Amino acid sequence: MMAASHILDKSSDTRQRLLLTALHLYAKEGLHAVSLRRISTEAGSRNSAAMHYHFDNKLGVIQALLDMVSRELARTAAALRAERGVPRTLRSSSRHILRPLAELPGRQPWGADGARFLSRLVSDGDEEIADMVNDITTPFLERLDKALSEQLPELPAKVRRLRLMFVITNVVHGVADVAWLPRTPLGDLSDFDEDTLLDHLVDYLIGGLQAPSPIHD
């Protein structure tokens, strides 16, 4: 029993090491620039086929990473709900919804890589990857869209959904690229703490959501 348990633990450790190495390389270099063999090598595996053994193929790796990141976001969201209850205004609701992603880089040692990986999914993803992302995010976005329809009843549905996708895209890239703030073309903008950055991001996004629309249903 002890020997079997040790083997299972070792296999689990190997899988996690491979997964975190893949996350770092994908975040740094992109989804299509890194081979499974290279991930195995950089993870220190002596078996060049280790990635195939644990994940089958690249899509299997990306699915496992999506599951890992989404579990962490869900845990953070649940903790925030327990801590502060359900917010009511558009601004407080938006801030509440965005906090798990905004706090991801600081909540896990791999959090910064996780944020950049999500940004890569938006930028580098092909049709198959987009389908995987949609499977995970559609239920959340549908709930968010319903909440926005109640807060912004005058906004046409198609415009609201387009703006919602702009919001999600901006947030994903913004959280991933926050390290750029010390050296922007407009100077060093890094002297805001995490909460203040989130406040400004929410204000920016709320302004876009609430802007009058020239399109009518």
TrEMBL record:
Presence of keyword Amino-acid biosynthesis: no
All copies of domain PsrA tetracyclin repressor-like C-terminal, residue ranges: 97-208
Domain HTH tetR-type per the UniProt entry, residue ranges: 19-65
Record Pfam families: TetR_C_30, TetR_N
UniProt KW keywords: DNA-binding, Transcription, Transcription regulation
Protein name: TetR/AcrR family transcriptional regulator
Natural source organism: Candidatus Marimicrobium litorale
Organism classification: Bacteria, Pseudomonadati, Pseudomonadota, Gammaproteobacteria, Cellvibrionales
